[in-house]
Write a structure and sequence with these properties.
Layout: H1 2-11, E1 20-23, H2 30-39, E2 46-49, H3 54-58, E3 69-72, E4 78-82, H4 99-110, H5 126-133, H6 137-144, H7 150-180, H8 182-195, H9 202-213, H10 216-238, H11 242-260, H12 264-281
Length: 284
């Protein structure tokens, strides 16, 4: 956590850098993640809950990793992927520097236009441009409303249009995904509705979500996630010894797998329970 905040302080004045903190704990909830965001001062960059593990897989994060640092370059390729910020050895120009920082700087040089393209924000809109890079749209809108000069108003209009275009693209993407991966499409539809509560596309996306929830395979996945948080998570949070795990958690897990073992979510649950079992078996 501290490393992420430190990197933010280092690069926050650079355009075209997006920071995203991802919580992959399967015992976490949005509320508990929000508490961690406040505790570790993980603002203003975006944070998301990935309890199902789809984003972790996409970023190449190993299962049950406590912390993992990934850098995605301007071309969408993974430029750095490791358990921490390793440093360069030797006596070269980069000796002693963190490898991921040199990869960030390399990407900035190769992709100077970033997500806003060649648009240069007026000085009064630099903070707004920073929030756009962070994809923090609520904070962004507050800054855009401060636009006073014609140049600033033009910039605000351009940014709002970019966001609108992105929403339409995401809506179309979710509708297409619904045909190939309905479970993931449902999750993304839910996330879209939460992120863009007042968007004109929200109604169409909600309708897609409602239609998907009627599918047996989607409902089963959602029920599996709810059952895990209702039955296993409370007990796992209280279990700190292998004896209690065997007596309380294992029977609950067995019953859970009997009911939901064929779901995708059950795989994440098995991994989480196994990681917890190994953790409590280590002498304190």
């Amino acid at each position: 956590m501290a490393g992420l905040v430190k990197d933010y302080e280092t690069y926050k004045k650079n355009r075209n850098v997006t920071f995203l903190g991802i919580c992959t704990s399967t015992t976490a909830t949005v509320k508990s993640m929000e508490q961690q965001v406040e505790q570790f001062k993980l603002k203003p960059f975006a944070n998301m809950l990935d309890a199902g593990g789809a984003t972790a897989v996409a970023f190449g994060v190993p299962k049950n990793a406590r912390f993992w640092l990934v850098v995605i370059d301007g071309g969408g390729k993974i430029a750095y992927n490791a358990s921490k910020g390793w440093t360069w050895g030797g006596t070269g120009a980069n000796a002693g520097r963190t490898i991921h920082s040199t990869q960030i700087e390399k990407s900035l040089a190769e992709y100077p236009e970033g997500i806003l393209g060649q648009v240069k924000p007026p000085s009064e809109m630099e903070l707004a441009a920073h929030y756009y890079d962070l994809q923090q749209f609520n904070l962004l809108e507050l800054e855009l409303r401060k636009a006073g000069t014609p140049e600033a108003k033009e910039f605000a209009g351009l940014v709002r249009q970019r966001i609108a275009d992105t929403r339409v693209w995401r809506k179309d993407q979710i509708e297409a995904l619904a045909k190939t991966d309905p479970v993931q499409a449902y999750r993304e539809a839910t996330a879209f509705a939460a992120a863009f509560s007042g968007a004109p596309e929200r109604s169409a996306v909600n309708e897609t979500g409602r239609a998907l929830l009627k599918l047996p395979e989607v409902k089963k996945e959602i029920d599996a996630e709810a059952a895990y948080h209702r039955t296993l998570v409370p007990e796992m949070k209280k279990t700190t010894t292998k004896e209690r795990f065997a007596k309380m958690v294992q029977p609950l897990l067995d019953a859970y797998l009997k009911a939901f073992g064929t779901t995708q979510y059950a795989t994440a649950v098995k991994n989480a329970c196994e990681a917890h079992r190994l953790a409590v078996e280590v002498p304190q």
